[in-house]
Amino acid sequence: MKYFNIEYISMATGLFLFLVGLWGIISQKNIIKIIISFSVLDTSIHLILVSIGYIRNKTAPIIDGVVSKTDAATKIVDPLPQALVLTAIVIGVGVTALMLTYALRMYSENKTLEINKYKSLKW
Amino acid sequence: MVNPVYIIAVLLSVSFLLGLFRKPGSDFARLAALITLAFPAIVSVSWLLQFLGEPTSPFIIYTAGSVPPFSINLKMGIEEAFLTSAVNILGFFGFLYLYRTFKESGVSAVVLFLVLVMGLNVVIMTRDIFNLFVFLEITSIALIGLIFLKKDINAVSAGFKYLIAVSVISTILLLGIGFIYYFAGTLNIDDFVSKNSGAVKGMSTAVFLVIIAVLLELKPFPANGWGLDVYQSAHPGISAMISAGMATASLFVLYKILPFGAVYWMQIIAAVGVITFVGSNMLGIAQKNANRLLGYSSIGQIGLMVGIIGFSPMLGKHLWMVFFGLFISHFLAKAGLFWLSGMIGKENIKSWSVLRKQPLLLIAFGVFAFALIGFPPFPSFFGKWQLVMDLAAHGQFGWIVAILLGSMLEGVYLFRWLGYAIKLDVEADQKLDLGIEKLIPVGVFALMLFGASHFAIENVPGGLTLNLIPVYFILLLFVLDFLPAKIKNSIAILGMAYYAWLLYPSLQDDTLRLVFAGIFLVGGVLTLFAGYSVKGKRAGFYPFAIMMYAGLIGLVEAKNLLQFFFAWELMTLGSYVLIIRGKKSLVHAYNYMLFSLGGAYLIFLGMALSVAGQHGLSLSLLNTTHFPGWAYTLLAIGFLTKTAALGLHIWLPGAHAEAESDVSPMVSGILLKGGAFGLIVLFLAMGAEKAGGHPLLYALGWLGAITAVGGNLMAVFQEDAKRLLAYSSVGNLGYILFAFAFMTNVGWLTGLTYSINHFLFKTLLFLAIGGVVMRVKTHNMYEMGGLIKRMPWSFIAVLIGIITLAGIPPLSGYAGKWLFYNAVITKGWYFQGAMVFFSGTIAFLYCFKLIYSIFLGQEKDKFRKVKEVPVWYILPQFILIIGIMVFSARPDLVLKPIGALLSQAGYFPTDPLTWENVTASTNLGYWSGYKIMLVIGVMFVTLLTWLLVMSRKAQKVKQFNIVYSGERPFTPETTHFSHNMFAPYYKALGFLTIPVVTSFWEGVNSTAHAFADSFRKIYSGNGQTYIAHILAYIIIVYLIIF
Amino acid sequence: MMYSLIIIVMSLIMLVMAFMAIHHKNLQVAVIASGIISLFASVIYIFLAAPDVAITEASIGSALTVVIFFYVLNKIRQSDDTK
Amino acid sequence: MIRNSILILLIAGMAWILFQEFSAYHGADKLNSISEYYAKNAPTETGAANLVTAIVVTYRGFDTLGEVTILFLTAAIIGFMISTGKKTDRKPEQSNSELLETASNVLLPILILVGVYIFINGHLTPGGGFLGGAVLASAIILWLMSATGPKISHALLEVTEAFSGFGFVILGVLGIVLAGGFLDNKILHLGTFGTLLSAGAIPVIYSLIGLKVGAELSKIIIVLNQTQGEEK
Amino acid sequence: MELLIKIGFVLLGLFIILNWGLIMAGIIRKIIARVSMRRGIKIYQPYINLIKNYSIRSQLSHGVMFYLGPVFRLSGGVGIFLFMPLIYGSEIWNNFSFTGDLILIAYFMFFGMLGMALGAGEGGHPYSAIGISRGLAQFTAIEVPFTLALLSLAIQYKTLSISEIVAMQQGGIMHWTLFTNPVATIAAMLSFLGAMGHSPFNVVMAPQENPIGPPTEYHGTFLGVLQTNRAILHVIEAVLYMNLFFGGASSWLELLVKSFFVYFWSVFVGMVFPRFRVDQSIPWMLKIPMVLGILSIVLLIF
């Protein structure tokens, strides 16, 4: 039962969350809800990336008592995706904050959070 | 060389430090930023120069003291050097443009701008896909921040839509990158390509996600509403950065990651690009908002470049040349246009007429517009040329059609726009935002287009064969435009005369070409004489007049297809500007341009078909084309747009009639022969005599006959003198087409005689009538009358002109008629021949109307003081009259050598015209122009003497001394029978003049607009819908690929 | 095996929270739900041998994001009040 | 209804694409060549015990630079957008609970200390600059919430923000001058593996990253806190 | 010398034609009068008119073109005469037909019309212009069947030279185009009706509505010139048709007789039919005669 391994489960969860996030973005009318959906989407990507880097039954990529410099290659999980995720998390937070600021700004102009009220530009 | 990483380091550290200068006022910060931005530009340009100087291997920038697959590396090769140069120059001038805006916005925006430029540099240089992701995010976010430079709600909401869309796209990109890493075990682009692990299951989907994300960043049609909104609402200076800068980087990203995908994906990418190009331009035609329209155009152009990247396997080593040509034109022109838009400040494209307050800006607008469409000498012309040629070589004709269709649609709105700018009234309250910091970028970019042209010419295959002397002469005239008109006129005339002298030896033996060269150059000089009567500067006239003539003469000189098409487009461009100078020419010049553009693209397509499967560019490739049917038909229709065959003629009457007095003869008497010469080239290519039975020729023969009747019939019912002459030109070009379609020796002689005649008399008539119109300030013939007393010289000119036109012996018009009959009977095209004859008699009607209504009949009170037209109009007229006389008396001087050429060069050896002294004869009949002239002359003089003797005491009487039922007529107006002169004729045959053709084209026009208008509703303005579009786009492309 | 079960449970909770985040009418609740997703994700990261990611996600992805959300929601409510 | 079904169709389509990936996914049993290289050589090359840190700060330090720039941008944009409104220095009217005030007074120094500790030790233990920065930012939040104590100095924040970023870039450039390339950490001696003062420039860089992240996040929060959501 | 002799004979021929034209006009008008139960004019009345007009002293001119109009007109008539071979087989009576062929004559007809139109136009009288516009309009339609017939002839005889066309019709009445190509002949003769300007195609002159058109503005010598031309032109056009369709003439007598009958045909029809308006005559010409003309070509091709 290979799908019972943790990396499969987390991968599947990530992909599901991805879809749920997308669904939220395209179905919710409220701008804040859209942003929340985006943050779900963001989290899901992190989860997927970490799952990608996971190697069965290996430990964290830190040289310490458990893992020595010499046998690191056989004992640790892939550190690279984790590095990517670190970067992605911070980017995600920046983008989310930016979206929220935009939402705030839009709200202060038009007093509504309905995205389909912002259609003065079209065609 | 400076390590390119310093570009990043300097930009970043300055932007970090600028945060400190928030309080003391931002002047220092702005200045520092501007100076800082010069640094990357200098660095990357110096790299570019080095790579151009000697091809060396790319410079790799390693980071972290490690080597590529493990650490991030950047690359500076020639491509990167070029693109970063572009981006950094754009950055510098873009910043300069926004210099004042930044004062109001504060330091934050300055910082954002610096980071944006930095990000673009890294995106171009990096070789690591995750790094790519990070810096794409940086550029997107910086742009989104900069959108806020305009603080209205539209900008904010557009920014939000953009932000959401970009975030979703980059999430998908990140997903793809993650899986690529999983399957390939690397993030390095070069490493990935060398590992060649595309076959792994799941890999292709991962790669798909990455590529589709990058494609979506490039805003493919129709999943691009978010991009359009930003183009529309952002500060134009920022839109310029998006359109030019961001697109540059994204395009290069696409190019970098392209090797990831399977080869057949190229087709998909090409399709994505071309569909974007066509679709976006299609929707653009219904758009009136300048910035949004520029957005449509940008997206379209970027789509085309995506297409080029998709076509890269077919382009081979030409890829960079093609890309360069189209890219640099888009880059410079679009940035320039957005900047101009910012200076105008109003949204409707009609407001651009304010540019007329600053002629230099108007020129810049023209340069940008022409560069976008792809007119020579701009690089896009060569890019498009080579693209089409290479596609043709691979048999991709569907794509060529699509690309040309897209270009055509782009022309539809760009020329409407340009026309508005040139012609519409300036709104009273409108101001131009002129700051030196705004003018410099626009000017520099316009000039750089010319530099880029130079580069493109050097690199396109066959480009070095182009004769650029006329182009330099045109540029010289641009520079000298500040001089008074008279001096420029002399320069132009001398230039043309000198060129004619230079050219003559090379054409001496080829009489066929010599005739046309003569028409173009001699005619050019003669028509320019009229220009001496213009006072003032006549700004912008001479460069374009010379451009038109340069194009025409280029046609004659052309030895290969590129030269021919180059000349053709040059001619179109010049004549368009000449035509639009007329007071009411807005819509006519627009029609002219659209038909010309359509025609040019058909020619282009025809040429592409001709060279397909063959090598080189020589004109003789037309002879051996593998697709004769299509190629010839397309070329023929293309040339027919210029000769205004019925169905394609609707641009002509207005364009010729509303042009300035001395422009009408240029565009009518001379320009139309360009199309005729094109037909000659085509027909010669069709293999001369053996093609005589070609169904195309048969069709063209009928078309010529119908055009002759239609054009002349329309002319009969005109009240506008110049319009009458214009329709007459339609008819006459019908004759010419008909005659050339014979493909027999005598037929061609007929065609050439008609061509020469039409040149002589139509130039003469338009000069004369133009002069009259200039004096009386109306085109309506019924308002004139009796002007023979005021303008006797003009009257004589018109009289000679119409005698020639009507083909009455002894003048040379008859030569054409006689040859024509012989040709018709030999060929056996009796019914068409009868139609053409019928049209000849109709011509008589309007000839009479023309001369009677203007010069005879009752003189009007208001014109009793008008003077004869200026001597500079009379002079060329009488030179032309001398020409007519000489040609009438001694047609053998011209026709004999041509006939000899036609039969000896192997074109049409059978049934030639035989000459015995001055008498020509065929199997059917004979004709001696010289003797006829002599007989008639002697007889006329004798009879005149007889009458003079008999009525020597004739008494001159006053105007109203006529037998008028015993009364004196009230006013000349009521006594001058002129308006609706041929009413009974209209009753009888007017049904033939119902403007079905005009209605047809209007129908086409309104259908296209209606389609565009309804289809663009998909851009609902709802950001969420745009996301749905993006997802749908991903899914659809996925389903197509897999 | 034990880990797998725990992760499955957490995954299910995350999915429920995701639906809640998207469909719950109260924005505060939705924000908190999204924060919980991040938090649970960071727990999963621990299982996936990614402690660096886990603590960063917990602090930044979860806590800080939620705080920012609340600030903004607060602002929006305030500007409603002042109207 | 039609709209919803179209949207569901879209999600189904995306699900199909994602399923392709999932079905190709099979976990991993061993490191791939690149990560194997990291596992074998990174500790010696960089001197960092935490391989993630080694990658984040050196091998992919350029990414991190970009990421820091994104935060910087975000903060700048938020400042740019919000500050354009009318600034009303709103005094927080609501009185905070005693508990919060006390807690913040106690916690604040501790939080700052913890944050600094985390990013200084980034090359040895999990955490590092991002976490440290976040902790610093949370200290700021706490400070704001308690509304007592000295006002946060904008100047200090800005100087920190500017010079931490600038320092990062300068260290990177020093890498070109003194060592093997941009952002090379070997500009400083690698030191003894596993100790605080080891791994070359990594602790310095990570500290700068931490300061930068902390400053930016704080700035975002301060800006959001300071202004009325209302303009015009 | 040779040329002088030639010119002498040409002038002689012109004199004959002119006289025949005047006499024929008298005869025809007499016939018309008798048919309509009037006494009519004297047969030599045209001579009287001509002499009277030439000798009238008062001469009014509206300008140069007005003055030149009659010259053009007469040149047109005389020119056609000059380019027309008169008698088959005679070098002498071939005039200057060696300079051009049938096409020349067909187009030279415009010369006189144009001059007349311009001269009358400068007169400034609106009715002149009306008449001219009608005349020109009608003329375009009249030319259509004629041209088709000409083409038919050219196909049939493979030449455009009038002399050769006449030559090919020699050898008996059955060789005439009238019999070898009857359809073309009918088409051309219908067109001839229009060319002669008799009813039903005489709205151009329109004696009733336009009593004061060009003939009134032009008076005295001018009118004399015009009348001279009219006399010449009528005969010479009849001669053209005779040459093309009725076997030409091998002697002056034959020429006079044949031209009379050809001309009489138009008078005869004019007696019988009422007048067309211009907008009626044009469609009429473009119906039956044109169809006949096309038919004549079709019959020859297939």
Key terms:
heteropentamer; A: 123 residues; mainly alpha; Helix Hairpins; 0% strand; elongated; D: 232 residues; globular
List the helices and strands and how they pair.
The complex is a heteropentamer of chains A (123), B (1042), C (83), D (232) and E (302).
Chain A: H1 6-27, H2 31-53, H3 72-75, H4 79-110
Helix pairs in contact in A: 1-2, 2-4
Chain B: H1 5-18, H2 27-53, E1 59-62, E2 73-76, H3 78-97, H4 99-105, H5 107-125, H6 129-147, H7 153-184, H8 189-195, H9 203-217, H10 225-233, H11 236-257, H12 265-284, H13 290-310, H14 312-315, H15 319-344, H16 359-373, H17 379-393, H18 397-423, H19 436-459, H20 469-479, H21 485-507, H22 511-529, H23 542-557, H24 561-580, H25 586-611, H26 628-643, H27 652-658, H28 663-685, H29 695-716, H30 721-741, H31 745-776, H32 792-806, H33 813-827, H34 830-855, H35 871-889, H36 892-904, E3 914-916, E4 919-921, E5 926-928, H37 929-950, E6 955-956, H38 972-975, H39 983-989, H40 996-1015, H41 1023-1041
Helix pairs in contact in B: 1-2, 1-5, 2-3, 2-5, 3-5, 3-11, 3-15, 3-19, 5-6, 5-11, 6-7, 6-11, 7-9, 7-10, 7-41, 9-11, 9-41, 10-11, 10-13, 11-13, 11-15, 12-13, 12-18, 13-15, 13-18, 15-16, 15-17, 15-19, 16-18, 16-19, 17-19, 17-25, 18-25, 20-23, 21-22, 22-23, 22-28, 22-31, 23-24, 23-28, ...
Chain D: H1 2-24, H2 33-46, H3 51-59, H4 61-83, H5 98-120, H6 129-146, H7 154-178, H8 202-226
Helix pairs in contact in D: 2-3, 3-4, 4-7, 4-8, 5-6, 5-8, 6-8, 7-8
If you had to describe this structure to a student in words, what would you say it looks like?
- The complex is a heteropentamer of chains A (123), B (1042), C (83), D (232) and E (302).
- With 1042 residues, chain B is mainly α.
- Chain B is 71% helix and 2% strand.
- In chain B, 66% of the residues are buried.
- The mean pLDDT of chain B is 89.
- With 83 residues, chain C is an all-alpha fold.
- Chain C has three helices and no strands.
- Chain C is elongated and about 55 Å long.
- Residues 208-212 of chain E have low confidence and may be disordered.
- Chain E has 13 helices and one strand.
- By secondary structure, chain E is mainly alpha-helical.
- The termini of chain E are far apart.
- Chains in contact: A-B, A-C, A-D, B-D, B-E, C-D.
- At the A-D interface, α1, α3 and α4 of A face α1, α2, α3, α4 and α8 of D.
